[in-house]
Amino acid sequence: MNSTHRNIVKTLGKVLLAILGLILLAFVGVIVYFKWFYSSDDIDTESYYVKSLPLSSDRFPDDFNEIAAIVKDNYSLAESKNLNLDSICDLYAIRVKDISSPKEYGEMLEEFFASLQVGHSYVYLKSYTAGTFPTVINDSVFISNPNDIMTKSGFRDKDRVIAVNGESVIDWMNRNEKYVAASTPLNRRLFAAANIFRSLFDTTRDYTVCRGNDTIEINLPLLPNDSLPSSVSAKTDSKVLNDNIGYLAINTMMDGVIESFVSEFNKVRNLPYLIIDVRNNEGGNSGNGRELARYFIHEDQPHCVDNKIISPVDDAYQGKVVLLTSPMTFSAAESFVIDMKESGNIILIGEPTAGDTGNRPKTFKTSSGICFRIPTAPPSVSPKGFPLEGIGVAPDYLVSQTVSDFINDKDTQLEFAKQYLTATNLDF
């Protein structure tokens, strides 16, 4: 080979190496981009009203294609739920081509994330709401302790809502369940009922209400979620039910709950029997739930989510414990229930939990600014083999609120727990 040929070969080699280097650099860049732009723990999460989405209608298809690509690469529970992500994403990619309004796109996104069949899968969209959560009993929707927005519009405590915008409550829930992200049918149904008072775009709704023997029509304004009057719910609450039984409600697992818990726990800790209520606890930080469990367990045990050892505090509660649960008991509250159940020290009374401890949910953001959240950890089980997603924790005694008790201001589940403790001489 003469010198000219050798020079050509060397030049071609350098060019090929340069091209390979550029390809490798681009590949690494894409990985870094997806890791940090789409899924960084420090992501600047934003939530929008659908009328203010940061993209025009002609960008809906491209935005959804980004979402679909991220979901296919990161959603970790599809196989366990027998979902074909390619087919699901393809179906919605076709639908989005015919969508021209922000309202339609917002609805489609909610439906898409609900189709992933898990409670920790959702898009960050603001809503209009009355700031209330109804009491749902066997698909009947009742008003309980209405706030100022509700009462000013004419609602009263114990009203039964029978229609929304002229559509029966049952039909409305059946039609709107497809927009509710949930891991179990019970949780999905509960929030389909709650969404009677929530909308992505409606600022007013008409309700038909049954009050005694009267049927009443009420028009209710729905306010922007971020302009609702501020209301601070107690993180924990306690009371003495009788000389032997204390009651302790833990309403959140968000920051600050430990300090609140300690204050309330000290008021009832010397009683021999304790009813802990997490029926209205939608979760927060699983580390807080792990810390709370230390006050009730009697020996070291692994935390159901991360297997970190939970050790009882020095003066852990030694009395008997009943735990009240519901389909609203979710996320970090649910992992708390699993830890408590696997300690062997408690009895569960009420209804199954929501069936979702989290599976390491992560927030992602498209280049258009749409944020959403999906689980990224594969299916797992607790130390004693209970699935951490997909099945609600079943109570030892299945007890539901009854309509007659509700009308008479009686908590069916709490009363059952009190009677159970008394009737069994507190020996379990």
Overview of this structure, please?
- There is one protein chain.
- This protein has 428 residues and is α+β, with helices and mostly antiparallel strands.
- Among the domains are: 38 residues; 91 residues, Pdz3 Domain (Roll); 150 residues, 2-enoyl-CoA Hydratase, Chain A, domain 1 (Alpha-Beta Complex).
- Strands 3, 4, 5, 6, 8 and 9 form a 6-stranded antiparallel sheet that branches.
- β12, α8 and β13 form a beta-alpha-beta unit.
- The longest helix is centred in the first third of the chain and has 36 residues.
- The chain is globular and about 65 Å long.
- About 5% of the residues have low confidence.
Write a brief structural summary.
Helices cover 35% and strands 19% of the residues.
